[in-house]
Predict the structure.
Amino acid sequence: MATGVWISLLGYFALMIAIGFYAMRKSTSSSEDYMLAGRSLSPQVAALSAGASDMSGWLLLGLPGALFVSGLASAWIGIGLVVGAFFNWLLVAPRLREQTVHYGNAITIPEFLANRFPTRAMLIRPISAIVIVVFFAVYTASGLVAGGKLFETAFSGIFNFGGLSDYAVGIVITLGVVLAYTVVGGFLAVSMTDFVQGCIMMLALIIMPAVVLFGEGAAVFRRRRRP
């Protein structure tokens, strides 16, 4: 069991790093290539990457936990996200793309806002950058927590480095791998790894209910119902 876990884990991490180096050769010729993958992502990669980034740890860990604790009332979380994402892509995204092209073909949101309101650029640019850094730092932290929880539950007792817990080791390894492929491959590496991770997530979301209903989960449920 431990050998299989190590092989699958190392294979997954090796694939992520390999994608990062592949992206480095494809998307580092200019800042636009590095930051936005040359604006040439396919619809499939862009959509699945956005979905995987938005619905990563919270979808597979947080939302099931909320449903377990509070029942079906927490299903409104998923419904709200679907509605919000739909209107975001329908109303905000096309207008933002059109406006960024019109105002200097801006690469980042702070740059776009500075170009859109040039008389207030000195104030808007740092404030918008601070807002992005603060809130994305919180979101990134939640992703690292998900990685730590995964290691703590799925690989309990396998890792033992310098007295660190499985949870701490999971956070460190997750952070190291993500930093590696992001730094070397930029946005293209992030999008491609998200695409792979999104495919894995979809398979997990399809397979896990079947396992619960017809596999070991169903057997455990039947044993618990016996008088």
Q: What stands out?
A: The chain has a mean pLDDT of 81. Residues 33 and 39 are 7 Å apart (CA to CA). Residues 2-225 form one domain. The chain has nine helices and no strands.
